Amino acid sequence: MRVADKVAIVTGGGAGIGAALAAALAAAGAKVVVSDLDEPAALAVADTINAEHPGATVGVGADAADTAQISGLIELAQRRFGPVDLYFANAGVVGAPGLDVADDDWDRALDVNLRAHIRAARLLVPQWIERGGGYFISTASAAGLLTQIGSATYSVSKHAAVGFAEWLSVTYGDQGVRVSCLCPMGVNTKLLYEGQDSGTELGATATRAVVSAGEVLEPADVADIVLTAVAAEEFLILPHPQVLDMYRHKGADYDRWLRGIRRYQSSLRENH
């Protein structure tokens, strides 16, 4: 899909990958609703983009996991720019490391990293089928294909996000609904360093695992890769190509792969 003249919503757009996606979309000629739980951040991103591309964006504070607020984003986009063509379900949370995580933390991770996608799709997919097309882009993680050392909530919810994106493509792909799933490793965002800042050894190990696994990319580079993949309507978007080899190794011999990940985790702890 060509994004020029299309209308997009980007959640988690106040910083990081979301802000970079909004900027790249506007530069490519799209109209963008920039949404973030942090409203001042969303407004600041929109103002920065509009300074270069006047009238291309509008910023708004919203909870990407709340159905009523997602509906409000869709209505805002329709009112300002027209029907929504692309939805970037990009908002995400990491979650505390370890097994002793409260149910409320599990609920938050599942709400933001998974149910937010489901709730948006419920609202948009029927519209897209009626209109003959639309595009849902899910930001998951390499952790959704592999695993996450440290945070069970992140690993499990991102696996679920990949699974939902797959299901969405299988179920509605023949009715004009395009789906992509973004699965990066390390990207230079605040989210990357939350484990390091958690004050726990397991959290710090989680951050070291991601940083040492491959190049830490800049959000703008990831956004460019995403738009190239959207133009080609590719499902799996891997800014770090080595993730595909890791995924193949996992599938080829699951037990061997698990032993290797345990050794890798141990080495990270021993070296720090």
Structure description:
- GO terms for molecular function: oxidoreductase activity.
- Residues 1-22 form the signal peptide.
- This is NADP-dependent 3-hydroxy acid dehydrogenase YdfG.
- Keywords: Oxidoreductase, Signal.
- The chain has 272 residues and is an alpha/beta fold.
- It has one domain (7-267): Rossmann fold, CATH 3.40.50.720.
- The chain has helices spanning 16-27, 39-52, 67-80, 103-131, 152-172, 201-213, 219-232, 242-252, 254-270; strands at residues 7-10, 31-36, 57-61, 86-89, 134-139, 177-182, 236-237.
- The relative contact order is 0.13.
Give the C-level CATH assignment.
Alpha Beta
Number of domains: 1
Number of strands: 7
Query: Average pLDDT, to the nearest integer?
Result: 93
Overall radius of gyration: 18 Å
Distance between the termini: 46 Å
Strand content: 5-15%
Figure out the total of helices: 9
Q: Helix- and strand-based class? A: alpha/beta
What can be said about the biggest beta sheet?
Answer: 7 strands, parallel
